[in-house]
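Researcher: Structure prediction, please.
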Amino acid sequence: MATVLDSVRAFFAPASTYTIDAENSADVVARETLLDRAMGADRRKKSSEKIRRNRLPAEGLALVARDGAGHVIGTVRLWNVEAGISPEGTPIDALLLGPLAVDAAHEGKGIGGALMRAAITEAHKRGHGAILLVGDAAYYERFGFFATKAAHLVMPGPFQRDRFLALELKAGWLDGAAGMIVASGRKLA
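Model: Predicted structure follows.
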């Protein structure tokens, strides 16, 4: 049974500074503005962007962080791709993560990490086998991403090999995978 002390503790407990939620159509402008500020004007020239262009994110894998007023303060999306081919010659389904961004005013609060954990968890729940990304190894290794699993895969256009990382959600999913990363997800209407 709740006591007066429990009620006082609940009243003075700090409110959550953000929530992780599914992205919705009303978030588009806020997300794009956040990405422009965080990634710069050249963000659309990156190899990862070539894969995402004219595609929809993987089903259920577009997430945002919202502040207490409901404003978008962070974003992450995952995209369906083929991660080269297997030794048997069949395409290997995977996800490409990105971009991940947090509003500068909210950096250092664990929002990026929370978005990563939520995205990985949801991708695992949906039965995906692996996630690829291009990013800072020192940051993403804590989530289990390493360059070794992506060693025989290549991105379209220029990319930095040491920043091309992979996480297997199913053990051995990328064993023997080799070749070009290509988009395989739903196209924009």
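Model: The longest strand covers residues 72-85.
Researcher: Thanks, that helps.
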